[in-house]
Design a protein that fits this description.
Strand content: 25-35%
Structural class: alpha/beta
Strand order of the largest sheet: 18-19-20-27-22-25
Distance between the termini: 44 Å
Number of domains: 3
CATH superfamily of the largest domain: Spore Coat Polysaccharide Biosynthesis Protein SpsA, Chain A
CATH architecture of the largest domain: Alpha-Beta Complex
Largest sheet: 6 strands, antiparallel
Helix content: 10-25%
CATH class of the largest domain: Alpha Beta
Length: about 475
């Protein structure tokens, strides 16, 4: 029996989880619940004999994050890079066509990267329960048995059982109001749409050819013209731009008759907003959820979530309030307004506030940096370089840099010199000098960088060589 190919979708931004989730580090790659990121948890969920190496569909901006976190999980896989997000249908078609083209027909399991499903064994049993129906070219969906009236999820109405453990999907329903959601819960034959699908690649492509032919044709052109770059497949930008994107639910699933559903009764959440996150955290007798460097006094139904180093968050006498603290941004909101947090992001974007999309830490393929002080004429940064990694060989036209090693051992190229710097040692880089910072050890490297000059923007970089292909 052939392995199932997981297709992990990583295209969302998760703006309702601002300020944790932003374009520079979406929620799926952030450490939200537990020691792993949600993406790492998704990879681990399908790391067993029944599943092949995954196909990851993400943006070019996040390709190195996805690759590193795959590697941290001890996994390899293929990474398809969307030039721009076009909703789920083009991403699903691209994965199915890529598999057909390079590996032949196979069963594909499409799964979001940002869901919280702590019981991995139950998840695998659920997927395998739908295998017989998928082998017969039926598209299998997975529905979560609701435990409350929920207006934030779409629903599937189930009919009689079909093949094996699967039920027939009678109808899809958009997010209902609370009154309708309560009626669905009482009826007992409605489930939350988990956004997870199992199907044969050839079956999905056949449905796409009949129901969304223009979209499929554009996707095929884009995949045929994709550029292979080690584990990365850069989907052709010009062809991809011609796609009028839609969700796979709207394009395919809601329009076909032969569709099945396997029910899942385990713990599941899409972690769509801070109320959903709070629902996965331990709470006290008064309904307070406290996480990180936070505490509360005389609060009720309040979430206090802090990931700010050196900042203590304290709530006093609060009721139905959500407060989230990061190093560079704070959200304070009424708990009933969590669906509107995305409007906060739009407001900040219009005001030109960088925190709308950019974290204090700027993640790069070699590690990350954060600005500690920004003043006219100088800037202080902290650089963290992963073991065995290196920045590009580069120069700057309008600034000088002074590097001080605070932990680890640095290998520095400065014009024709090669220097080895231990902790507490430093080097000065003049304007125009070619230079490179590398970590050739197995331990992390931390460097304090002091920039001085008339212009300190990140675009003042001339790259000559780069192991990550960014020249």
């Amino acid at each position: 029996m052939s392995e199932i190919v997981p297709v992990i979708l990583c295209g969302g931004v998760g703006s309702r989880l601002w300020p944790l989730s932003r374009k520079s580090l979406p929620k799926q790659f952030a450490q939200l619940i537990g020691a792993q990121s949600l993406f790492e948890s998704a990879v681990t969920r399908v790391d067993c004999d029944e599943f092949a190496d995954p196909i990851v569909v993400t943006s070019s901006d996040h390709r190195f994050l996805a690759e590193k976190q795959l590697r941290d999980c001890g996994c390899s896989g293929t990474i398809l890079l969307e030039p721009v997000g076009k909703n789920t249908a083009p991403a699903v078609f691209a994965a199915a066509y890529h598999v057909m083209k390079h590996n032949g027909d196979a069963l594909l399991l499409v799964m979001p990267s940002d869901h919280h499903i702590p019981d991995q064994d139950a998840f695998r049993k659920m997927v395998l329960a739908g295998r017989s129906a998928a082998d017969e070219s039926t598209i299998v969906t997975f529905g979560v048995t609701p435990d409350r009236p929920e207006s934030g999820y779409g629903y599937m109405e189930l009919d009689q059982p079909s093949a094996g453990a699967a039920f027939t999907v009678k109808k899809f329903h958009e997010k209902p109001d609370l009154v309708t959601a309560q009626k669905m819960l009482d009826a007992g034959h409605y489930v939350w749409n988990a956004g997870i699908f199992l199907f044969r690649a050839s079956a999905m492509l056949l449905y796409a050819r009949n129901l969304a032919p223009d979209m499929l044709a554009a996707v095929q052109v884009a995949i045929d013209a994709a550029r292979d770059d080690n584990n990365f497949w850069h989907i052709d930008e010009a062809a991809w731009a011609q796609i009028d994107g839609q969700s796979v639910d709207y394009s395919i699933l809601e329009k076909i008759e032969k569709i099945a559903c396997v029910r899942f009764s385990g713990n599941w959440s899409d972690l769509g907003d801070w109320n959903a996150v709070a629902g996965q955290l331990p709470h006290d007798a008064k309904g307070n959820f406290v996480n990180g460097t936070a505490s509360q006094l005389d609060c009720q139904n309040t979430t206090l979530w802090s990931a700010a180093n050196g900042t203590q968050l304290v709530g006093l006498g609060l009721k139905n309030v959500v407060t989230v603290v990061m190093d560079d941004a704070v959200l304070v909101a009424d708990a009933s307004r969590m669906q509107d947090v995305r409007d906060v992001v739009g407001h900040l974007e219009q005001a030109g506030v960088s925190q709308a999309n950019q974290h204090a830490k700027d993640y790069r393929p070699w590690g990350w940096f954060e600005s500690l002080i920004i003043m006219p004429g100088y800037q202080v940064k902290r650089l963290h370089v992963y073991p065995g990694s290196a920045l590009s060989l580069q120069s700057h036209q309008r600034r000088s840099e002074h590097w001080v090693v605070v932990s680890g051992t640095a290998t520095v190229v400065r014009d024709d010199e090669v220097l080895t710097l231990a902790t507490n040692e430093s080097v000065y880089i003049h304007v125009g000098q070619k230079h490179r910072l590398a970590n050739e050890t197995e331990a992390p490297l931390t460097v304090i960088e002091v920039q001085t000059g008339i212009y300190l923007g990140e675009d003042d970089i001339v790259r000559y060589e780069d192991v990550f292909g960014r020249v």
